[in-house]
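Lab intake sheet, docking and co-folding queue.

SAMPLE TYPE: protein with bound small molecule
LIGAND NAME: Palmitoyl-CoA
LIGAND FORMAT: SMILES
REQUESTED OUTPUT: full 3D complex as structure tokens
PRIORITY: normal
SUBMITTED BY: R.K., bench team

The fields below were copied directly from the construct record.
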Amino acid sequence: MSDGRAFQDGYPEDVAHCYGCGRLNEAGIQLKSYWDGDETVARYTPRPEHTAIPGYVYGGLVASLIDCHGTGSAAAAGSRVAGVDEASEPLLRYVTASLQVDYLAPTPMGVELEVRGVIEQVKGRKVVVEETVSAGDAVVARGRVVAVQMPQTMTPAEGPVETRLR
Ligand SMILES: CCCCCCCCCCCCCCCC(=O)SCCNC(=O)CCNC(=O)[C@H](O)C(C)(C)COP(=O)(O)OP(=O)(O)OC[C@H]1O[C@@H](n2cnc3c(N)ncnc32)[C@H](O)[C@@H]1OP(=O)(O)O
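RESULT FIELD (auto-filled):
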């Protein structure tokens, strides 16, 4: 677990600016996801600016973790099915079609969160990932991402990085 290249490190450079998972977004979360057996896992400790009320994490941050771990897991699972060498080749690119989040308990600050994904379905261009977010032994959120391999027509915007969509 957590050995080798993170899924997000396999994103091509022109789509590595996502706020949640882009390794080239210095102000972002830079989430890193890995295989753990048949599941996927990412860990992240929220920063003070991710506060909802003092002591608790903003729900949008929790949703971002589920979103980007979901698309990363989809990239890894879809690439594996397509025969891409995950360790060295660029991964297939997926975007979020649907993001569902259930908040089960307040998420404490100052704790490393663990995001776990289970690949429920790989079908054509679609990958469905079921996820949990845990703080210690407590599952604080559940989520589901439907990710779709981006159409060939969807390309990053031209111009300076800060003006591009992603
Ligand atoms: C944003 C620009 C980026 C440009 C480069 C990106 C590069 C990526 C790199 C990684 C980056 C990470 C990113 C982080 C996560 C974001 O934040 S991504 C940003 C937020 N997401 C978006 O902006 C996506 C906007 N939506 C779209 O562009 C289009 O709706 C989509 C998602 C590409 C799907 O459109 P489509 O290709 O026409 O899909 P379509 O063929 O109709 O459906 C394919 C399958 O998906 C299912 N599906 C489609 N939509 C839905 C839905 N909403 N609910 C449930 N199922 C659905 C269909 O039912 C179908 O399933 P099956 O019938 O085969 O079982």
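REVIEWER NOTE: Confidence is low (pLDDT under 50) at residues 159-166.
SIGN-OFF: pending second check by T.M.
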